[in-house]
Amino acid sequence: MTREDCRIKKELEEQRKLGNAPAEVDEEGKDINPHIPQYISSVPWYIDPSKRPTLKHQRPQEEEEVPYSNIGEWYKRGVQENAVTTKFRKGACENCGALTHNKKDCFERPRKVGARFTGSGIAPDEHSQVQLDLDYDGKRDRWNGYDPEDHHRIVEEYAKVDLAKRTLKAQKIQDELASGKLDQTHGEHDSEDEDEDKYADDIDMPGQNFDSKRRITVRNLRIREDTAKYLRNLDPNSAYYDPKTRAMRENPYSNTGMNPDEVGYAGDNFARYSGATITMAQTQLFAWEAYERGSEVHLQADPTKLELLHLSFKDKKEDFKEQQRESILEKYGGQEHLDAPPRELLLAQTEDYVEYSRHGAVLKGLEKAVVRSKYEEDVIINNHMCIWGSYWKDGYWGYKCCHSMVKQSYCTGETGITVALEAEAKHRKHIDAIMQIDERKRPYTSLQEVKAPTEEELEAFRMKRCRSDDPMVSFLEK
Question: What's the Rg (C-alpha) of the chain?
């Protein structure tokens, strides 16, 4: 519609609402109220594509009755018992001779010579399955096609088996009573006890008060012998108890100093972090790391693939460590030090203090050792005989064995004591002193002496220079 047509249509609708123009008429000759909203009067595209003015889509529609199958009808199973065939028919199964299927769909054992050539042993025809046209309720009826006779047959079979067992048991008891091997009252009591274990109706389930005669079950919320979680430690600063979920995640005995292995309850997290929980967390961490490196693996989507990849990663990591260890031992040696027994066995003594009782029980000791310092102590490197800081001179620390003031330098022994890199130190001090003087007040020939450095001076410069990329440069400056 053009803009002019829309304007004319709008004016016509206003005139109809005012009563100055006749109302629209539907296909039945009835007037359409002009005050009806457009979303009600407009016809959907799938009902009337002609776009005629009508309200037929708002009126009740006549439903067409579709002939559905009865709710009791169902597919016939099995074979036709009253139809017996003794001659092979054209188009029948070449294996068994049934007319309702072919050789490809035959469920019988393949015969050495099929019924097509022998003409004997013709199998009966199956029931021809018709296509049922069920309605909405029939398609969703879970009991449609159920034969109650099947259940009656199963019940009768089990009743016969139970009756036979009882008959054999009664005959056995009578034979034992006749031979004098069993007392009559004792035998009846044992029989009742033995039968009681076989039937669930006569057994009281744990956590229930069950009466098989009255069929009344009363469930208990919890066993009353169990101590409530909030009563295990009445200290208000102990583990938090959530009354809504009845959860206490932390150990209520944590502030008492008791061993978690000796208490009866160590919190919900104690059981949550046991078993395969830690292994699963490690696998999830490996999955995240593998995904960052480009491997498309997921713990929930591909658990088997992730497990195999994790096992392969562990094997390769162990092989790499073993190869690295063997290469280091092959290059530098020292296998005899790795094969040495522990230090406690060599010296036959230890610094761990343990106090025993007169009966041999441990009273004090075997606690976790307290670390004396966060820095490694008594660590000797680079052929030094003493540790760093064993020598001090002119406000500087060094090694006592070689009088070297450079940390992590190689030990030079007595030669280092005699030399001690004095030339480099003097030159560095001279340069620092000159650089601190104002350039307008420096001596005229202060930087005149320039010559090529010797190998000793280069070595001293390399050992004493400060590297900006060294992570310990701030510690070395202090």
Answer: 49
